[in-house]
Amino acid sequence: MTIARWLEWVAGFVVLIVLVGGITRLTESGLSITEWELATGILPPLSTEAWQAEFAKYRATPEYRLEAGLAGMTLADFQFIYFWEWFHRLLARCVGVLYAAPLAWFWWRGAIPSGFKPRLIGLLALGGLQGLFGWLMVQSGLVGDMTDVSHFRLSLHLLTALLLIGLLVWTARDMRRIASDPGAGAAPLTGLSAIVGVVLFVQLLLGAWVAGLNAGHAAYDWPLMNGKLVPDWQFTGSFFQALAYDPYLLHFLHRWWAWIAVAALIVLARRVRREDRFASIAVHSAFGLMVLLGIATVLSEVSLWIAAAHQLTGALLVAATARAMHSDGTARQNAVRAAAVA
């Protein structure tokens, strides 16, 4: 049970990182720190000279030369965006310690259930990989005439964090189950859960691309887009190129695929409501709030805090869905075990 609580705390910290990452993106702060210093980067600049040195590095970036500098950015403005990127990286370092140190302790004490050591090591590796993806994302915005990071790398960074949340929650549920039933093994992934996972993945991917391309600004009305049910596309290439780059098409798809995701989540939540009523309520609450916040984000012309709350709710939805998927697998496994005994 202690291991389960530890994993749940780590998942909570990753949710916080996703929230701060969203604020970092919305405030255009992601390119304010142009280097990755694992140890020395823990502390922010502590003197005026150090701040000026960091500001000078930022002034050499395409974002400053082509956007921020033209708006007359001051040192105080730079310190504001620097804070969010620094805080985002600090939280990532903290969650690494929060995971690695207890893992070593549980390993040394022999407290990890049989068969789970490879999975726990895999989660540690996935967390490190997510940090690497974050740095590769930042690098993509520091070359040529780029004023933003690659939305492909941004989606990779974000979706890896959301996957980590889901796997942490799933593993914590396994640990709780084994604590109460030592004969139980890891819960299997059912066919329904796999389908729901794919549908939700598509919606989250579209959302990440919308964020990366600033496509939330493509329209400020709802349910229409600029007065039309189906907006005019801007991209002149093929449909697949438009699917990857056109902000109007991506915004449109993100809006309407959401209802397919809602339908899939309702099916899953209703299926597990007897086995895990909490998970059923959590899934319904999370997707309901996420839809409302998505609409509010559009109508508010992408208000910082509403948009950040929308991303936060997305992370909570992943956690709730992971629990519901685990409960679905547990019910299937229990049924198989009961049939075998009979």
Overview of this structure, please?
This protein has helices at residues 2-26, 48-59, 62-68, 75-109, 117-140, 151-180, 191-212, 239-245, 247-271, 277-299, 304-341. It is mainly alpha-helical and 342 residues long. It has 2 domains: 1-186, no CATH class; 187-342. The radius of gyration is 22 Å and the shape is globular. The chain starts with a helix and ends with a helix.
Low-confidence stretches: none
Mean model confidence by pLDDT? 91
Our count of helices gives 11
Count of folded domains:
2
Keywords:
342 residues; mainly alpha; 2 domains; 11 helices; globular
Question: In a nutshell, what does this entry contain?
Answer:
With 342 residues, the chain is mostly helical.
Which helices and strands, and how do they pair?
Elements: H1 2-26, H2 48-59, H3 62-68, H4 75-109, H5 117-140, H6 151-180, H7 191-212, H8 239-245, H9 247-271, H10 277-299, H11 304-341
